Amino acid sequence: MSDFLKRIDKVVWGVQESPLKPRVLRVVRTVLVLSHDLARGQLTLRAMGLVYTTLLSIVPLLALSFSVLKAFGVYNQILPMLLNFLSPLGEKGEEIAHSIVQFIEKMNVGVLGAVGLALLVYTSISLMQKIEESLNHIWHIPRPRPLGERFSRYISVLMVGPILVFSALGITATVMNVEVVRELLAIDVLGQTIQAVSRLIPYLLVISAFTFVYIFIPNTRVRFVPALLGGIAGGIAWQTAGWAFATFVVSSNQYAAIYSGLAILILFMIWLYLNWLILLFGASVAFYVQHPEYLYAGGGEPRLSNRMRERVGLSVMSLVAGRFIAGERMPSLLEFTRLLGVPMHALEVILDALESRELIMQSSDDPPVYMPARDPSLISVTQVIETVRAAGEERFLSPEGLPAPQPVDDLLGRVQQAVESSVGEMTLRELAAQGTECARQDRVVPKDQ
């Protein structure tokens, strides 16, 4: 059995060329990495955190939506939406939906005062912030958006989002009631086709909502196709989970016997957990589709060895210097990731180290591009090697503060001298010129071919 697993592992993750087709191999690797992510528990922990935040913010969130929709005269659509969302809970879902709506209707925003209204808005925004943090974690983005941009995005989603959703539902209902559409429904073939399409509308709405979240919320540029594929995976999983959970609720009479009156709350929390887990699962699918360089056997955030750091650091500096000398467009972080095939999180460590030593600098463009911080002829290759070797060192943990036997220090000193004597005084401009010459020779085609 172990030999069989080793063969499978070699076929899927081996360095040599796999007998599987590239697309099939990529799908297999994606499935295995997603399974590993679910097993490691990071997605489940994030989903549980979102459940807790949802329980705190669902009433304030719906109260704000209720206020906005009331101004447009469509506030009576909140109950049907809740009933549809909680339909897998059966009769218990109807009870929860009616309780939430009654609570919202009794809430008088006018008597809350400035402090109460501010807390209401903050509680609603906290859910959006938690969603962004979870998606940023999946996309390996350590920095959130600026506070002002986050606030404007959250408010736009809270205020405009409900209007767009209910407008789409209203337009769909109006179109289905138009006399021309009714006449078309009377025709057997067209009627069956339209009915089949109408059954797909819930899937299309969920897929559209998931795709919008994957594009709009993460603090990075998410391409449409990966977001759509993640939305399709999440939408199908959500609809399937609703059917499976409804079947589970029907056969879960023992929960009422064990938890008594709390059974409704327990089932509601489980359903919320499944929804958030599916949302994060779809985001992971979108991430791995856009960044296949993260598809490797270990899972998590890849770390580069010292040898890889030197290789990537020199490649980065050679690419930057070569384009700078040739007057070409300078590369961005995403372009580095695509050209070098290095995961973005691991690449940022090297770029930050080179930037801290003032070897490269970022522009003010959006997204920023990288350029030499000074003339490439004034940057030696040895400086680049030393910088990437020392990347991540802190003042409290550095070679100077780490005692070692004298023979070890002597040996490391000889290694450093060997590197310097081998590289000599080669500058970054010379390295980039050699790379340009090699590329030019590769483009030359012999006349006899």
Can you tag this structure with a few keywords?
Arc Repressor Mutant, subunit A; mainly alpha; Ribonuclease BN; 2 strands; two-stranded antiparallel ribbon; single chain; 18 helices; disordered C terminus; 449 residues
Would you give an account of this structure?
- It is a single chain.
- Helix 3 (42-71) crosses helix 5.
- This protein has two domains: 25-294, no CATH class; 306-393 and 406-443, Arc Repressor Mutant, subunit A, CATH 1.10.10.
- The protein has 449 residues and is an all-alpha fold.
- The protein is elongated.
- Residues 443-449 have low confidence and may be disordered.
- A hairpin with a 7-residue loop joins strand 1 and strand 2 (370-372).
- 73% of the residues lie in helices and 1% in strands.
- The chain has a two-stranded antiparallel sheet with strand order 1-2.
- Keywords: Cell membrane, Membrane, Transmembrane, Transmembrane helix.
- The chain crosses the membrane at residues 50-75, 109-128, 154-176, 196-217, 224-250, 256-289.
